[in-house]
Amino acid sequence: AQSVTQLGSHVSVSEGALVLLRCNYSSSVPPYLFWYVQYPNQGLQLLLKYTSAATLVKGINGFEAEFKKSETSFHLTKPSAHMRDAAEYFCAVSDPWQAGTALIFGKGTTLSVSS
Amino acid sequence: EAGVAQSPRYKIIEKRQSVAFWCNPISGHATLYWYQQILGQGPKLLIQFQNNGVVDDSQLPKDRFSAERLKGVDSTLKIQPAKLEDSAVYLCASSLIGTNTEAFFGQGTRLTVV
Q1: What is the per-residue DSSP string for B39-102?
Q2: Is A51 on the interface with B (CB under 8 A)?
Q3: pLDDT tens for residues B3-46?
Q4: What angle (nearest 5°) sits at the alpha carbon of residue B46, between those of residues B42 and B51?
Q5: Is A90 within 8 Å of chain B by CB?
Q6: Phi, psi for residue B71 in degrees, rounded to 5
Q7: What one-character DSSP code corresponds to residue A82?
Q8: Residue range B14-25, pLDDT digits in tens
């Protein structure tokens, strides 16, 4: 069964600092991978997705993620944090060989940004 | 384009009462999902529909939870009777059919069982 592990339930950075949120997947074949962001009292919004094309994926709000098969990782980064980036971030995986399978989410990482 | 609509936004009920949530997906999206998000955890799939048929309900507690999607559009999720551990945010999402299509989420319904 597929799964994702997000290392670190809480990450704190200063405004302007690098953001690094970690995600590792467990799958026998490279899956499709997604990062979603959730602001307080809101639903989930897609930041970016990997679907076996370019391994470096650029998303919205300046975020990007790199798929590394050798490390089974899909870490999310942003060069310079902004106060508005404070939110909950979820990594998710889906099976590329079964059309329409639901996303399986990690437990999430709360990002705090201080001024 | 209108997003996924859910109602109500908040609901407080006593244990053993029943409750229902409603979801209207994005027009044209054949796939609809209900997720349960307990505080501090990631969303967990409860049930997935494709049109009006159930694709996956393996994690739905069928002794108390039920869901339907009549006519392949709107969906309702019901809990009867509710337990304290059902307190969570219930998220509805929809997507087109495909292997790498994005799921669009509604704002969710926050259920508190007291």
Answers
A1: TTS--EEEEEEETTEEEE-TTS-TTTEEEE-GGGS-EEEEESS--GGG-EEEEEEEE-SSSSPP
A2: yes
A3: 999 999 999 999 999 999 999 999 999 999 999 999 989 999 99
A4: 125
A5: yes
A6: 60, 15
A7: -
A8: 999 999 999 999
